[in-house]
Amino acid sequence: MLKSGETSDGIRQRRAMHRKFMIPVVILSTAAFSLADANDAEQAARDATVVETVLRLKGIDVNTNPRLKAAVLRHLGTQEGTLRYVELVGKLKVRGVEDELLRLALEEPASTQGVQAAGLLLQFGETEQIRQAIDGKDEQAALGAVTALGHVGSEPALELLKPLVDDLKRSRPLRTNAAGGLGRNRLGQRFLLSLVQSQKLPADLNFTVANALYAAADETIRTAVAKHLKLPAGAEGTPLPPVAQLVKRRGDIARGQQLYNTTATCNKCHKVRGEGKEVGPDLSEIGGKLSREAMFVSILDPSAGISHNYESYSVVLESGNIVTGTMVNRTDEQITLRTVEAIDKTIRTGEIDELVKSNVSLMPADLQKTMSAQDLVDVVEFLTTLKKSGTGSQVPSSSEGG
């Protein structure tokens, strides 16, 4: 009906406003609240309609309407563990799902959904929940939290990471991850540089921090760190490029395999397809487990992250001798350590004066000194081909190369 003084344009605008606000309300009413006769499939479809409708509207707080929120939560339940789940929580600002966000952040800290989940927790003011995960007894959960925060990179995330770097009560892997996370952006890099300049950076993080700061986009940071830290030297004492540059290079697979079995001496501690010695982890499928960046770091700074079950132990004997190796077996009567030469040594409990778990890897820390930057790139190129059967490139047999 035409109102007094209303133009035809006014009528069209009024009808458009009516459609904009009334139709979604009807959809919400029928989809969210007429549930008694719905089966599971119908319910899921209605919940999906509710969510899509709310996404199109502005200013609706799903947390203030219990029945509406119930529909949203049911729909979220069908999306758990996915990026879509996190995106919906963020767009609708759904509260009460913090535990699921934390689980995603801790279990998938290097995935998009895990990183976004950690970011949402910070946006929701759940800093303490993340801090508790870092301070808890579960080392893997703590590492997950630190890794996710490093990828988030926001100021609140960096503030949680900063105290960890020089806290020697924390594990080496945790401090390494914290430093690596800070090194991903300029604010964090400046903080790390301040630790370097004030000589407060723990020595075991020199590689991690140097690697991050030498790759900084800010030239003043690169110039400043060069006065204090050096990158590892390769063959003939030439400093290697930062890992960020090494990962961009591509190498020769066949030459990398040859180096793996000779100059790099990898086969003295690792097996590939049954060949080599079993001191460290089997590398037959390493190409499907580690990124190219992680491979370079594992070679250049092996103690930064020691694989589970390959931690190093030192046994101090009553005679004064010390035996060091990975734990192969342990009983009440004896323990067996595998040395870096792949020799198993069994020691009776009565002979042991002290057993110490080390945070230093058995893998030599200076392997790169025997290789040039290109040698290192070639070895990593070869390692990337070592994957589970049917998932990509396969290592050639010893008769085919190397």
- Determine the N-to-C terminus distance: 87 Å
Shape: globular
- The residue ranges in which pLDDT falls below 50 over 5 or more consecutive positions are 18-24, 394-402
What sequence of helices (H) and strands (E) makes up the elements?
HHHHHHHHHHHHHHHEEHEEEEEH
CATH class of the largest domain: Mainly Alpha
Residue-averaged pLDDT, rounded? 85
Count of DSSP H/I helices: 17
Structural category: alpha+beta
Portion in helices: 40-55%
Major sheet strand order? 6-5-4-3-7
Secondary structure: number of strands: 7
Question: How many structurally independent domains?
Answer: 3
Measured by DSSP, the beta-strand proportion falls in 5-15%
Query: What is the CATH third-level topology name of the largest domain?
Result: Leucine-rich Repeat Variant
CATH architecture of the largest domain: Alpha Horseshoe
Rg result? 28 Å
Largest sheet: 5 strands, antiparallel
